[in-house]
Amino acid sequence: MSAGRRDLLVCLLLAGAMALLPQLVGTRYVVTQSTLFFIWAVVVSQWNLVFGVAGIFSLAQMALFAVGAYATAMLGYYFAVPMVVAMPLAALVSVAVSLVVGLACLRLRGPYVALLTLAIAQVLYLVVVNDTDCFTNPPSGCMPFFGGVRGFSRFGDLGFRALLGSKWYVAHYYVGLGLLTLAMLFSIAIVRGPLGLAFQALRDNPGYARSRGVGQFKYQLWVFGLSAFFTGLAGAFYGVQFGVVGPIVFSLATLLFLLSMMVVGGLGTVWGPLLGAALLMLADEGMREVGDWRDIGLGVILVLFVVLLPRGLAGLRLRGVSKAKQS
């Protein structure tokens, strides 16, 4: 069986197994935390295409996530666009922003890309928090165009609260699961297909790749744009899930947390980001009661993986395959 077909089968089996979770473990906390896991797993799976597969050190992923969340909230708040329409439109806005970021980074390499993309994210954050002029005056008080430090709320939902009452979160669970399944199928198609080979060639030997006709300009924009759609869609769903969008979506702590998921899971692999997201979210939950030691514990986990398992959890399987071939 080819690697692509094997990954496709694993993806469908995992999706089927996760679909049973709300019936097996019906507690609201477990279901909502699993929904949050789906959101972060979507983000890191797409970030991995840029960072791990294509080798572009972009730190703009949380900014694209935030663009998706804010675009959804603003479409719902100002224009009463239904969320089922606003979410894909917001994802397209994220794609447009990502193409601008891709153009800005075209002639840069390594840490310079990281610095520029982080600067772009900070500029967007400052635009939001420094927006204090009243754009509208609802009963709740002055509302800046970008929401300011208060952010947006009451901009709409997917309708499951009215339809299912207190069980609306179960429907959101399945929406998140469907979103993650589509994102993983997309990642598999990219990594195992011709585009993935082109991205890896530009990552490993850009001079040779260009000499073989792999255009860096075209493929860099491709990877920025393609990964941004599901990232923006995850941001849109995040806003709908929690019912509020504010400057916290630009959080540097969250960005570092998601970056750690990729490192722990294994950069450049299909399943590494998913494994890293699962492990770190479980570790984060397990250390929730220890207060300040929680961040220290996560840091220790990251250091151990960087030193002892630099290829991440997915690297364990790759190492096993390599030894099997040698024997």
UniProtKB/TrEMBL annotation:
Q: Which UniProt keywords apply?
A: Cell membrane, Membrane, Transmembrane, Transmembrane helix
Write down the InterPro entries for this protein, in alphabetical order. ABC_transp_permease (IPR001851), LivM-like (IPR043428)
Q: Which Pfam families does this UniProt record tie to the protein? A: BPD_transp_2
Q: Write down any Gene Ontology CC term.
A: plasma membrane
Stretches assigned to coiled coil: none
One Gene Ontology MF term? branched-chain amino acid transmembrane transporter activity
Instruction: Report whether Transmembrane shows up as a keyword of the record.
Output: yes
TM region(s), chain numbering = 36-57, 86-105, 112-129, 173-199, 219-240, 252-283, 295-313
Signal peptide start and end residues? none
Topology in the membrane? Answer: Multi-pass membrane protein
Q: Where in the cell is it found?
A: Cell membrane
Protein known as: Amino acid/amide ABC transporter membrane protein 2, HAAT family
The root-end lineage is: Bacteria, Pseudomonadati, Pseudomonadota, Alphaproteobacteria, Rhodospirillales
